[in-house]
Amino acid sequence: MRSTLLSLLFLLLVSPIQADHGTPHFYNSTRENGLAQATVTSVLEGRKGFMWMGTAEGLHRYDGYEFKIYKHSLRDSNSLSNDHVTALCEDSTDHLWVGTFVGQLNRFDKRTETFERFEITDKDGAANRYPITCIAYDKDGSILVGLDGGGVVTIDEHTGEQEHFSTENSELTNDFIKSFNTEANDLGFWIGTVQGLSLFKSGQFKTFESLRVFDNQFVSDVLHDGAYLYITTIGQGLQIWNSKTEELRSIQPPNYRGARFMNFIVKDRSGDMWIGTEGAGLLRLHEGHFERFRNDAYDNRSLVGDNVRTGCTDSRGMLWFGCVNGLSHYDPSYHLFNLYRSFEYEGESTNSNVYCIYEDRRGIVWLGTLSGGLVRFDPKTGERRVYPILRDGNVETKAVRAIFEDSGGTLWIGSRDEGLFSFDRRSEIFKHHPAGEDVNLKTIRCIYEDSKKRLWVGSNWGLFRYDKRNEKYAVYASRYQRNNPIYQIYEDVTRGELILCTFRSGLHLFDIKKEAFTVLRHAEDSSSPSANALMCIEAIGKDSFLIGTYGGGVNIFERDKYKFTAMTNLAGLPNNVIYGILPQGDHIYWLSTNDGIVRYDLMKGKFRRFDLNYYLQGLEFNEGAYCKSSDGTYYFGGPGGFNTFKPADFPVFEQPRNIVITKFKKLNDEVDLGQSIMYTEQVEIEFNENLISFDFVALNYSQENSYAYKLEGYDGEWIYTGKNRTAYYTRLSPGTYTFKVKAAGPNGEYGPELSAMSVIVKRPFWSTWWFIGLTGLVLLLIILIIFKVRTRAISRELRHRLVDLELRALRSQMNPHFIFNSLNSIQYFVLKNEPKQAYGYLTKFSNLMRMILQNSRMRYISLEAEVSWLQTYLDLEKLRMENEMEYIIHIDPGLDRENIFIPSMILQPYVENAIIHGLLPKETDRELTISFHTENKKLICIVQDNGIGRKRSAELNAERTKKHRSQGLRLTGERLEMMSVPGKSRAKMEIRDLQDDEGNVLGTQVIIELPILKAQDVKPSE
Fold first, then answer.
1. Is the dihedral of CA 608, 613, 614, 615 positive or negative?
2. Core-most of 53, 235, 285, 780, by most CB within 10 Å?
């Protein structure tokens, strides 16, 4: 009897079903984004949190953004012995053991990033010739090495002493070793071979009679879980052995080609088993069923390849899979929303664009679609039954817009084009309830039964009350309700009124007794609704409401005061279009929007957005398509189906751990510290190495991390950078500093864990005692030479200081002028009631100010930095001119933007002059072109406009032009004349008036010739 029950259980395990709500999103890495070779042979999580991968072309370290690759070098005996890596293992001392295809073993020291080679020998002392297939670390200090034909070798990690085991001197089932797996009760290691399975502990092998069946099977992997041993084979699929009863059951995989050829098995935190196959993709044993996931060339979230060779689960519960085509990883913590997107009728897919969701008293959820009829969804089984057409005689429709079950148990259906229907769920018959010919009741948006069991219908043409007994409609319409959809009806029982959310004329309060409307519409008043298009309403407490709008964000409506308070994207709301609102407790609300689902904490005023990474049906949702069921399940629907979730089941997102500094750079070049930066606590730099940077990352492999950093001794407060993972510093004074970085996860909260590194800026050599003493002695002998050299140096320094002073003068002149114009523009947008434009302008303006402050410390900046801030500056000017100006910045593709330096803000006066005096007087067709190229070993910068020309500009505004040139262009011209770098050509500037053949003015062109300066040409102090 017991055997029969077990057999039935295993049959259930292999019943293949496809659950679209369970399809994982994979994040893939291939040759195109960092792998040196696409065939991933092994995957391992290190203690520091990095992921390590073996490929056919080297060892890879991955931090979630970049791969660091270690390869063999003929000239470096401390490099990897061979690039074809086949096995990885980490020991207790944080060393990484690396096995190769040619049979060589390496021990990688993560601190020094060097490889030590271990020569494996056979029993006769000859060099090993067999590929290494697997490596394991034993707690007794031994390294186990599996060879493909050479049996098992154990190596003492301290002495290096080796011991060999094969079929000749042990009970090993075969010399072709395929896997090592720890025995669950710490009794040793399960060893899988091409002909069987055995247990190994301290040089002893143990076999089980019930496992003799594997003597003729290729055992690829073993997973010991509780009392069960899950065994994958090549050709025989999955088998499960009960270690207590020694009973073995063969589990037949789904009938897919290659599904019986299984390479490995891993278990995730939820208890599901994941199996990689040779050609059939990835199999998941989930809730008693096999699910298969394959590569889809048209879906970049699908598995990277169907040949899945290796896999592991990391400490965060993330799953990693190595394929022949690359690396895939899947984060179950992002799988927060169940997704249903497929509706079928008689084997054919129907429309899955969901426009309304409703739960009846039996716990059945009903969905209305755009053109696929009515759908019955059973949450317990996941079954979806489609009624594609609502038909009663000659009347039929496929578009359902509203669903409601009244107190008598009748299910009412509102259609888009044929009015009201009722549905008998036993007979599955629809009945049409037509209105009179003089009543426009074709499109129904909502249905509601009040406390006195009166049925109300909201349509595109007013409010209707339906008398179910007499089958007659009463029409109630205000002067605003013609072609004005009513999206939701809410009853205020205390006041005896219905609150109506309309799409074109705001909020309507309908006094049921007086049959009178009070209309609250958007006005030039902060206490009125922020928009007239209202989509949904939800009560807050006794006399307040949360209202979702189309374009106006969320409104808090205080009924007793007739007061509205808006929460928009200016307050942090991710999107201003709110389709549905569902409450969770007293102050948490869930919103469906045009940009995902948002969790709104009313008490804290905080918003958290969930996007496609969390398995949403799409970023855009639909009005009316939301519901909270009796068991606490939330439903939101949209064009791509619908999502379900229980907020109570949401995992608590851990704050990022393993925050590491990954790179330290000088002038954008990574510095060789002599050891891994993860083990470096302190770095020293010279006083004149004045451009340094730090790269950092939190090793939780989340794209939603935010970062903050601080250089103690320089920064007074933490600098919050969002997703940016690099910090730059220039011109640090001699002294000791401490760089610190911390991170926040998806919930936006920063944890206590951080990474730190000390930075010592050395004193200049001339401030040391020995240099002062030596200088004093030498000064007596060569005073005249020193005097001349110092005179020249002082003269040159004063000259440069003069240029700096003039540059500061230019900035002090430009900045107030620009700030004044910008603030006027912001004020202009505010006065025009265009907060979105004002907010965008203000954001760009703050970014530009930050760039100016950052670049103002340096005399020379890279061409890339100059172009970046010019783009921001021109974007602001374009916005200020109401987009009546177009600009183009063209850079010769051959230019190295990062390694070419030019004087800071050298082009801005010419650009500003072109805009103000050339383009602004024009009303239309304003064009500005800035280009960069090289010619005769010079950098040519051209600023060209199609403005009115210098002559006409002088006539229109002579005084303004005169002042502008004297303070802006004159100073910039003098800077060009005085700029001199030894060995480089001098800077020049030329202004040309552009004319056609007939002498008509075409604009003005400014040509600036600059010496090509690289990093080595610019002094550190500059």
1. positive
2. 53
Tokens of 226: 């509780």
Helical H segments across 758-834, by residue range: 769-781, 783-831
Find out whether 152 and 146 touch, Cβ atoms under 8 Å.
yes
Residue labelled with tokens 């074109």: 504
Question: Cα dist. 503→487, 511, 525, 531, 1008 in Å?
Answer: 7, 20, 19, 9, 57
Q: Residue 12 above 50 pLDDT?
A: no
pLDDT at 661 over 90: yes
Q: Are 600 and 591 in contact (CB under 8 A)?
A: yes
The pair of structure tokens assigned to 571 is 């307050």
Q: Are 317 and 1 in contact (CB under 8 A)?
A: no
Cα separation of 1002 and 946, whole Å? 5
**CA–CA separation, 724 and 928 (whole Å):** 31
Residue with tokens 């590929």: 131
How many other CB atoms are found less than 10 A from the CB of residue 308? 31
Helix, strand, or coil (residue 612): helix
pLDDT tens for 678-733 read: 999 999 999 888 799 999 999 999 888 999 999 999 999 999 999 999 999 998 99
Let me know: does 354 contact 641? Beta carbons within 8 Å. yes
- Provide the angle, in degrees to the nearest 10, between the axes of the packed helices 783-831 and 769-781: 130
Pairing verdict, β 750-761 and 735-744: antiparallel
The b/e string for 414-453 (b: 16+ C-beta within 10 A; e otherwise) is bbbebbbbbbeeeeeebebbebeeebbbebbbbbbbeeee
Beta strands in 950-1000 (DSSP E): 988-995
- Burial-class residue 103 by CB neighbours within 10 Å (0-12, 13-18, 19+): buried
Sign (positive/negative) of CA torsion 313, 743, 733, 855? positive
Please name the helix (run of DSSP H) or strand (run of DSSP E) that holds residue 446, with its range, or none.
strand 444-449
pTM of the predicted model, to two decimals? Answer: 0.71
pLDDT digits (tens, 9 = 90+) for 241-275: 998 898 998 888 888 999 999 999 999 999 999 99
Count of C-beta atoms within a 10 Å radius of residue 1: 5
| Mean pLDDT in residue range 324-353 | 93
Question: With helix as H, strand as E and coil as C, how does 455-484 read?
Answer: EEEEECCEEEEEECCCCEEEEECCCCCCCC
Paired strand residues for 618: none
Backbone angles phi, psi at 191, to 5 degrees: -115, 120
205 touches 192 (CB < 8 A): no
Q: Residue 289: pLDDT band by 50, 70, 90 thresholds?
A: confident
For residues 501 and 498, give the distance between their C-alpha atoms in angstroms, rounded to a whole number: 10
Residue 343 has a CB neighbour count (10 Å cut-off) of 24
Average pLDDT, the chain: 88
Dihedral, 892, 896, 898, 901 alpha carbons, nearest 10:
-80
Residue 661 near residue 677, CB atoms below 8 Å? yes
Pair of tokens at residue 850: 């930050």
Neighbours of 36 (CB within 10 A): 17
**pLDDT over threshold 90, residue 525:** no
Phi, psi dihedral angles at 522 (to 5 degrees): -65, 135
Structure-block tokens of residue 187: 């009794």
Contact criterion met (CB below 8 Å) for 174 and 165 = no
Q: Which amino acid is at 1021?
A: S
DSSP 264-318: EEEE-TTS-EEEEEBSS-EEEEETTEEEEE---TT-TTS-S-SBEEEEEE-TTS-
- Contact between residue 761 and residue 734 where contact means Cβ atoms under 8 Å apart: yes
Q: Indicate the range of 395-409, 579-593, 806-820 predicted with least confidence.
A: 806-820
Q: How far apart are CA 593 and CA 575, in angstroms?
A: 6
